Amino acid sequence: MKPAVSKPFIAVVCVICAAGAMGEYFAPQAENSGNAAELAAPVRPKDPQRQAQAVDAPAKGDLRDRIKRLAMRAPQSDVGDLFAADIPPPVAQPQPKRLARAAAPAFPFTYMGALQDGDARVVFLTSADDRVITARANQTIDGVYRIEHIDAHTMTVNYLPLHQSQSIPLDRLR
Fold first, then answer.
1. What does CATH list as the number for 110-173?
2. By CB atoms within 10 Å of each CB, which of 15, 64, 90, 136 scores lowest?
3. Domain ranges across the chain
4. How far apart are CA 84 and CA 89, in angstroms?
5. What is the pTM of this model?
6. What phi-psi label fits residue 9: left (phi over 0), alpha (psi between -120 and 50 degrees) or beta?
7. pLDDT digits (tens, 9 = 90+) for 103-145
8. Percent of the chain at pLDDT above 70?
């Protein structure tokens, strides 16, 4: 809802009313006075009746003239309303989600046993579809896993899509 009178107009009227209360400083001056010291000093009415009139309230016509003069010379500001409530509240910035590092899936083969073939060790694995796979070190299984190293207790397997190594304990899988 917009007020009927603008805020700058109300401010000007308040200033004028405060100035009117101090009427002795704003009393009309003689126009033909040429003394600079007289012009610089505030004019004080010498007449007690005029002094009472200046202190109580300025004349209506005089007040209207002052309002018009002040309204004409009132500075226009581009600052706007300093107390406006239409400032939006700050928006919280969403934190970027950190993606979890992709992990290699669990080794999908079951260890059945091992055989020592000279210097190389051969392991026997079964898949989910009951295939039996024999594997040696540096051999690739299904194009996805490469056997890096086999010893008596562990087998090191590299998951090729993510280049992640897994160490699989052979004692526990039996």
1. 2.30.30
2. 90
3. 7-29+36-73, 110-173
4. 13
5. 0.42
6. alpha
7. 889 999 998 999 888 888 999 999 989 999 999 999 999 999 9
8. 61
